[in-house]
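Hi everyone,

Forwarding the result from last night's run.
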Amino acid sequence: MRYVGNLPCATKEEEHVVVPMSDGTRLSARVWRPVSSDQGPVPAVLEYIPYRKRDLTARRDSIHHPYIAGHGYACVRVDLRGTGESEGVMTDEYTEQEQADAEEVLAWLAEQPWCDGATGMMGISWGAFAALQTAARRPPNLRAIVIASFTDDRYADDMHYMGGTMLSDNLAEAGTMFAYATCPPDPAVVGERWRDMWHERLEHTRPWVLEWLRHQRRDDYWRRASVCEDYAAVQCPVLASSGWADGYSNAVTRLLSHLDVPRKGLIGPWSHKLPHLGEPGPAIGYLQEVVRWWDHWLKGVDNGVMDGPMLRAWMQDSVPPSTSYEERPGRWVGEPDWPSPHIEPVAHPLLRHRIVMPEDGVPEDGVSEDAVPAEGDGRGDAMTVQSPLSVGQYAGKWASYNAPPDLPYDQREEDGGSLVFETDPLSEPVEILGSPTVELDVSVSEPVATVALRLSDVAPDGRATRVTYGLLNLAHRSGTGEPEPVEPGRRYRVRVELNGVAQVFPTGHRIRLSLSTSYWPLAWPPPRPVMLSVHERTSTLTLPVRPAEEPDEVPQRPFEEPEGTRPLATTSLTAPQQRWEVTRDLVDYAWALEIVKDRGTVHIDDIGLDVGCRAYERYTATADDFTSVGGESAWTMRFRRDDWDVRVETRTQLTCSETEFFVDATLDGYEGERRVFSRTWNETLPRDCL
């Protein structure tokens, strides 16, 4: 990254600005703005998240907010109610209170003497959720948004549930927020009130996973704040981005398809990172793109920001399997609209372990309309699989954070417990852009069953790199939000949409589709082992094929090199630690995945604060006992300055029987080595077709 010091506007920073809410609660904001805004007001850009602006995001914030401010904007970073130095308690994500506060913050910004009344919102992850959800409420002064790594569908395309299956990130993210929501404010800002504010948070916080487990189907809890319920509610321009290695790779194209406002989409090779900090690389000059967006929509500058393709996407070249990449080779492609006129869906029958390519022709005993049975018809041959619980050990995380290495590894061991279909070696390259879909004619042995589908690029030496995947809990086969158990032995036709991707399959490689009945620990397994029968002659894989070297109908402007302002100074006191370790015990057949993400202890030089943050996750199973699976998420957060030494320790465990989930959690608060708060939860919740 190129650090830029000479910006168009001299700026100043206000570290703690109080933003009053109508109920008397005071939120804490950090403001960067041009010095000249004292005389000439400028538009304001809000980032609104719960991740502690004073310490935990301070270094990241110092790269992009001063940069945007230096181009003529008041950049305002606000901690949500109950986080950082903002008063109150945060009890859940994306609540009505949170969104009402966002509207009040925007109204407050518009009234400041240094703001000209025009506002925008930006952010990644929670900040992008907040911007999109607030836009759907149509506050009068919100003119445009810039969002990265987000979803418009809180149930079907977030870290909680996928295809009606529960993701392990439902536990992991709950553990993260259990810790973040219980951290103390800094007494250097709030004074002696810090202890009362902290204990209010400790007293009123519960493990968030309890609420998320109470809503195992698509109900009003998830529909509220899911913009996909009413795309027409969004009436301001949207610049949306994500990365193929991120869990949020699908929402960008959905917004392009469904919104009726000026919009642009950008999808790179990145994990859960802002594009100017993108990993795997290449990172891009994202902040320059953001400034152009604000210049046009907040200042009215005619700079051609809407010229060029609607979607720019990184077409990824083939790579060997690895849990981490510094760079992903490939090229940028542009699509004038989405859905794109360049993309052709090509259906491939599945037959005798083969994916039938168009040039192969229809086999003598291949697919015909007469061969397609009605639902429940028992005709036709079937291939079967009952996957061991070990399938999924090398799946990586639902959303890659690139630290520690968390991408899927070589799929050959996973494929040993799967039903596999693949092409012959390709006679020419195949490029796909979009979401592959699989239509299956299936029957299963249990009323609750999961099918996991993985699409891989298989090199001539046999190494298999997972390209994308999808999950379906067959009880959710109708997609209505009202799951129904499967009738064992009955045939059903189901459709599974895999995550979107842009990928080149080279000449000589094979395309492989793998099906398994478990994918633990990425997804919680069904209550019992399942025998899956796939009636192959009436099952198909459809690929969104983009002809190789398809020329852009509208020329692309090349991205610039990443820029930002120099990050604030920090000193490492203890080194970070990372571990991603799979272990197996061949005596009692137990296995475990252990993940350590320890950021070490960092000293923030300008405020004299030491900050430590350590996360630990453990996922276990024994043999093929589907009730033996369990997950644990434990966090330690520590803040220290002189004689102020405070830490929070949280631990959440999730286990199950065939009919119930069991949550055991603890929360402890310490001043020095003295424990000043402790609480334990032990709760049981029913499994709902899960």
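Confidence is low (pLDDT under 50) at residues 364-379.

Cheers,
N.
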